[in-house]
Write a structure and sequence with these properties.
Blueprint lengths: L1 H38 L5 E2 L21 E5 L3 E3 L11 E4 L5 E4 L4 E4 L3 E9 L2 E10 L12 H4 L3 E6 L15 H8 L3 E5 L15 H6 L8 H10 L8 E5 L2 H6 L23 H15 L4 E5 L20 H14 L3 E3 L2 H5 L19 H13 L1
Parallel strand pairs: 2-8, 9-10, 9-11, 11-12, 12-13
Antiparallel strand pairs: 1-5, 3-6, 4-7, 5-6, 7-8
Length: 377
């Protein structure tokens, strides 16, 4: 009897041991499966593209997107519109150190200078695109005016009465507003003020002589600087700068004799020239955000060009200030647009006043054709 109990006890212990071994193997296998599954969950910035880049892969062109996407460092390129009909599409990058994709914002992000390949996968279809990333301001194609580059970006504008809302009597009718609306941008603020010059209103200048007792008069340097010290430019992606009409009127010198870059402090007090003041404004914007993209818009056509400055002589012409604007834009790697000749064909003051309200200012229709011209560049 004791011998039978011993045998039964041994068999019971042996079976329990086998059960624990099997359970342990099942648990281990389950944990490996979970771990493997977790590794395959895509993060917000996709990395691996090995499954898409084998030599025998057949690529489709099912997404309407450029074959080559040009970006600047830290620029974001929206594919939200392109992927509208492809819910769940996965975009991977061969080299995420150059460009990566954020699946939450649906943006391709330029990381550093270089070229890489990215892959779009949706169900069984695969598409390949090239991405080229350049330094800011060195590649004109990357400063493209299209929906993918501009959608949801923050925009501000600085300028004189041609850029200001007040000259039209209707809000959001300027070329800046129309440009922003066309690309679904966020127009954070239009800082343009009628009568302002790019050149700092230093004591002894013609600007100071006329505006010294005008408490509302202000020059472009201080408009930009005040926005900067108030922290209003930190998250701005794009900025228009458009001066020159009032500078032509007041005739400040084009240069102070040396090509200096001014600091980001009250040293605009030493900006005694048109080019120096323009440099200062651009420097402030780039100090506020090193990744900002600046659009320098040269003067719109004005009938004043035929008889020079009406009050302060003709030392410099419109052409002189326009040339100076172009030189600074190139020097500071800004996007440059010159609408002078284009708008000259639309000048119709005293002959219908459809596009021009007077010898300088555009009408609402004038702003529409100007915005269309900028968009086409």
């Amino acid at each position: 009897m004791n011998k039978q109990k011993t045998i039964l006890l041994f068999l019971s212990l042996f079976c329990a041991s086998c059960t624990n071994i099997n359970n342990s193997e099942i648990i281990s296998s389950s944990e490996e499966s979970i771990s493997s599954s977790s590794e395959n969950i895509p993060s917000s910035e996709e990395s691996s593209s090995e499954i898409l880049s084998s030599d025998d892969t057949i690529y489709d062109e099912f997404v309407e997107i450029d074959d080559t996407i040009y970006l600047e460092v830290n620029e974001r390129y929206s594919v939200k519109k392109a992927l509208l009909n492809f819910n769940g599409a996965l975009i991977t990058s061969k080299d995420i150190s150059i460009a990566s994709y954020n699946s939450n914002t649906k943006q391709i992000i330029g990381k550093k200078v270089g070229s890489t390949t990215m892959y779009i996968q949706h169900l069984t279809k695969k598409q390949k695109i090239n991405v080229e990333v350049k330094e800011i301001g060195t590649y004109s194609d990357s400063f493209a005016f299209d929906f993918a580059h501009l959608q949801d970006k923050n925009l501000v504008a600085f300028g004189d009465s041609v850029t200001a809302d007040a000259t039209l009597g209707v809000n959001n009718a300027t070329y800046v507003s129309l440009f922003a609306n066309h690309f679904n941008m966020n127009l954070v603020k239009n800082y343009a003020i009628g009568g302002t010059t790019a050149t700092y209103m230093y004591r002894g200048s013609n600007i100071y002589k006329e505006y010294a007792n005008n408490t509302t008069a202000i020059d472009g340097c201080r408009v930009v600087y005040n926005a900067y010290i108030n922290g209003e430019l930190d998250n701005i992606d794009y900025a228009f700068i458009a001066y020159g009409h009032n500078d032509n009127y007041f005739q400040p010198p084009l240069t102070d004799g040396y090509a200096s870059d001014y600091c980001i402090d009250d040293s605009f007090y030493s900006c005694h020239s048109y080019k120096g003041s323009y440099r200062y404004m651009i420097n402030v914007l780039k100090e506020a955000n090193p990744n900002i993209r600046i659009i320098v818009l040269n003067c719109t056509y004005s009938k004043y060009c035929e008889f020079g400055s009406p009050s302060y002589g003709n030392t410099y012409s419109y052409q002189d200030y326009r040339n100076a604007t172009h030189e600074v834009a190139l020097e500071k790697r800004c996007r440059y647009i010159d609408p002078w000749d284009y708008l000259k064909d639309y000048y119709d003051h005293n002959n219908g006043n459809v596009y021009y309200k007077d010898v300088v200012h555009l009408s609402i229709k004038g702003h529409k054709i100007l915005s269309q011209y900028i968009i086409s560049q």
